[in-house]
Amino acid sequence: MQISRFTQTRLSVFERTLGWLDHQTLARTFPKSNAAHLTTGLRGEDAAYFHLRRLGYTIVARRWRSPKLRGDIDLIGWDGEWLCFIEVKTRSSRSFQPAEVAVDHEKRTMLTRMAQEYVRHLESPDQVPVRFDVVSVYFPSGKPEFEIFRGAFDWK
User: Fold this and answer.
1) What are the pLDDT digits (tens) for 24-45?
2) pTM above 0.90?
3) Domains of the chain (ranges, CATH numbers)
4) Distance between CA 153 and CA 83 in Å, rounded?
5) pLDDT tens digit string along 107-140?
6) Fewer CB within 10 Å of terminal CB in the chain, N or C?
7) SS3 of 135, please?
């Protein structure tokens, strides 16, 4: 799906504004000793959100939580007819193991349970094709680089 030049410009302005606001909020909310990996993770989720929007995803939820379950789903969105539950993993460099390796069995189980809870509240849950995607975000030189693994795992 191709998006118009106007929409791309609007997304770019919105992305820069949101980045600036996030930076201001973090600077005022968290002490300077805040863990760097948490800040990197939030930057990665924001970058993935805008990247997926540029690719044509329609994001319907960010950091979705259920009152019944522990954890959250980073992004939920539609990619065509597919409802995608998206886990974002961020690293500051590619020096160590790939970011997507962090989506282990325990994380997949948690995401599956959360997705089942989300889908249960849809109008026709058995008719919605569901997919689990993993987005790896790297910040080797300040500008994000992305790897998207569509259908990284299934319900089982």
Assistant:
1) 666 665 555 566 666 778 889 9
2) no
3) 5-151 (3.40.1350.10)
4) 14
5) 999 999 999 999 998 888 888 999 999 999 998 8
6) C
7) strand
